[in-house]
């Protein structure tokens, strides 16, 4: 059992790599446009993906907590494999809607379960005296691995485009099976209460809501911060490729730019903890908020490659915020319902995108990329303040309470 648990970490890292190694993503907008879809229709497919996840996110996280994280990961990665396989014959708007629906269910099952299993594995190994990176570093490394995989996929996409877009789709269809095969290698990590798992679902639901709403205040405001910054990241994610097209960047370069952006997220996530120790959490939060605004305005007013380069600011913020916020959340949530809480947080992002995603597509088609980027900056600047200022206040209160307690709370 101990040896298998130690192998869990490597297996989850490899799963994370192949979950991020999506060669179709860096050229997904041109792929769909090549099949006759407008930007509005492209964003409608993503709205369906978000809707599917919204419907399945919390139930799937709860299933992972009750039924087992390994089982949820296997089912989700199996569905993802089938979804990527369907790209081989996808041609119409409806075909891509079906593709997104399958992936929505698959990713919702994995979302939260992989983080929770990794975190629980590290906690248990430390408990039995095994040395390791620790839960905090493991989370940042997983985020870093997934971002690095996205970068590798970007390079792969550009190389495959030397032949044709069909090669990109074919490679994605086959590499999509790797996470399922790796999932067979992981085992369930022991958790408190595993010998008598509570199947009173009503009581479990009340306990989860109590954790979020009436537990440590930092948990709730961290969840809000993840939702705001995550939503902005999703918006910009779908603007990038259209923006590069408008700036006259050749399609063959899309993958390389994507790789550089992903590497930036990976490095930012990898060194987020060290940067927090150097700057302190308050200055780091200011940096996390300032960078995407600078990036959005830079892209809106920049021309050619200068505008493309400004996008790196958004990616740095993304890597820092994911690592800092998710560590703050997971370190304050009990292991029994960690996957459910992670899923609830993701639900906040997906739920809003269901309605606003198509609106973003309409804005891009009607008003252009620059105006849309300025609108995003104007909208999110106050939202960031609304979540970060209360978060800092709650952290300071928690620190003050910690001075009266024998056990220090986890740092942000």
Automatic annotation (TrEMBL):
Record's keyword terms, sorted: Membrane, Transmembrane, Transmembrane helix
Coiled coil feature spans: none
GO CC terms in record: membrane
Gene3D superfamilies given in the database record: MFS general substrate transporter like domains
Protein topology in the membrane: Multi-pass membrane protein
The protein, known as: MFS transporter
Annotated compartments: Membrane
Pfam families assigned: MFS_1 (PF07690)
Bilayer-spanning residue ranges: 12-33, 45-64, 71-90, 96-119, 167-187, 218-240, 252-272, 284-306, 341-364, 370-393
InterPro entries the record matches: MFS (IPR011701), MFS_DHA3_Transporter (IPR053160), MFS_dom (IPR020846), MFS_trans_sf (IPR036259), Sugar_transporter_CS (IPR005829)
Keyword Transmembrane helix carried by entry: yes
Boundaries of every Major facilitator superfamily (MFS) profile domain copy: 4-393
GO-annotated molecular function: transmembrane transporter activity
Classification of source organism: Bacteria, Pseudomonadati, Pseudomonadota, Gammaproteobacteria, Cellvibrionales
């Amino acid at each position: 059992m101990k040896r298998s648990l130690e192998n869990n970490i490597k297996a989850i890292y490899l799963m994370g790599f192949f979950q991020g190694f999506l060669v179709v993503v860096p050229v997904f907008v041109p792929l769909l446009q090549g099949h006759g879809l407008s930007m509005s229709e492209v964003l409608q497919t993503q709205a369906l993906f978000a809707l599917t996840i919204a419907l399945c996110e919390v139930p799937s996280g709860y299933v992972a907590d009750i039924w087992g994280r390994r089982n949820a990961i296997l089912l989700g990665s199996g569905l993802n494999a089938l979804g990527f396989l369907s790209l081989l014959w996808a041609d119409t708007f409806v075909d891509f809607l079906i593709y997104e629906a399958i992936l929505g269910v698959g990713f919702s099952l994995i979302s939260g379960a992989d983080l929770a299993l990794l975190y629980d594995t590290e906690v248990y190994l430390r408990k039995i005296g095994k040395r390791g990176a620790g839960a905090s570093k493991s989370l940042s490394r997983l985020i870093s691995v997934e971002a690095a995989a996205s970068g590798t996929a970007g390079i792969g996409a550009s190389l495959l485009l030397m032949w044709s877009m069909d090669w990109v789709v074919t490679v994605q269809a086959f590499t999509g099976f790797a996470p399922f095969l790796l999932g067979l290698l992981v085992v369930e990590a022991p958790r408190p209460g595993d010998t008598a798992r509570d199947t009173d679902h009503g009581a479990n639901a009340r306990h989860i809501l109590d954790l979020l709403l009436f537990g440590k205040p930092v948990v709730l405001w961290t969840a809000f911060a993840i939702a705001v910054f995550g939503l902005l990241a999703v918006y910009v994610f779908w603007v990038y490729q259209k923006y590069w097209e408008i700036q006259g960047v050749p399609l063959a370069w899309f993958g390389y730019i994507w790789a550089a952006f992903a590497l930036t997220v990976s490095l930012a996530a990898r060194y987020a903890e060290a940067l927090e120790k150097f700057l302190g959490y308050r200055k780091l939060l200011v940096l996390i908020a300032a960078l995407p605004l600078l990036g959005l305005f830079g892209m809106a007013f920049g021309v050619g490659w200068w505008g493309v380069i400004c996008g790196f600011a958004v990616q740095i913020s993304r890597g820092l915020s994911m690592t800092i916020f998710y560590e703050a959340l997971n370190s304050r949530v009990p292991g029994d319902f960690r996957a459910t809480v992670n899923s609830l947080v993701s639900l906040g992002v997906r739920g809003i995108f269901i309605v606003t995603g198509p609106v973003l597509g309409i804005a891009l088609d009607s008003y252009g990329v620059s105006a849309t980027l300025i609108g995003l900056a104007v909208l999110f600047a106050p939202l960031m303040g609304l979540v970060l200022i209360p978060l800092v206040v709650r952290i300071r209160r928690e620190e003050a309470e910690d001075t009266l307690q024998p056990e220090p709370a986890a740092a942000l």
